[in-house]
Design goal:
This protein has 116 residues and is mostly helical. Helix content is 60%, strand content 3%. The protein has one domain. The protein is built from four helices and two strands; from the N terminus they run ααββαα. The protein has a two-stranded antiparallel sheet with strand order 1-2. A hairpin with a 2-residue loop joins β1 (70-71) and β2 (74-75). Keywords: Carotenoid biosynthesis, Isomerase, Membrane, Transmembrane, Transmembrane helix. It is a multi-pass membrane protein. It is found in: Membrane. This is Lycopene cyclase.
């Protein structure tokens, strides 16, 4: 089994979980923004540290099992796991009821008027 096939399975499961979470309770813009920011951060960290680990020989890939597309010296297949995590973790959190708190209410009157 190639890494691309394995990644497709994990990404498919993550997409299904995210779709179930969105169907059950549509996400707020804050959740999308936080998930997107986390995804960007994890992709950057993956690019840096995977290239370092491969460069020093800590990790090696069978050339017959990768697609041949690289980011630096890291195969593109390495980046599927952060994408799956960015989809799956917020979805699982939402499905387990992690976002059931009422929204934070902002004050509409200045504090000085409320104290009088």
């Amino acid at each position: 089994m190639s890494y691309l096939t394995l990644n497709a399975i994990f990404l498919g499961l993550a997409v299904l979980a995210a779709a179930a979470a969105l169907w059950r309770r549509p996400a707020s813009r804050r959740l999308y923004a936080a998930s997107g920011l986390a995804l960007v951060a994890v992709l950057v960290l993956t690019a840096v540290f995977d290239n370092i680990m491969i460069g020093v020989g800590l990790v090696a890939y069978d050339p017959a099992l990768i697609s041949g597309v690289f980011v630096g010296i890291a195969p593109v297949e390495d980046f599927a796991y952060p994408v799956a995590a960015a989809l799956l973790l917020p979805a699982v959190w939402s499905l387990l009821g992690g976002d059931t708190r009422p929204p934070i209410r902002r004050r509409t009157t200045p504090r000085s008027e409320q104290d009088e």
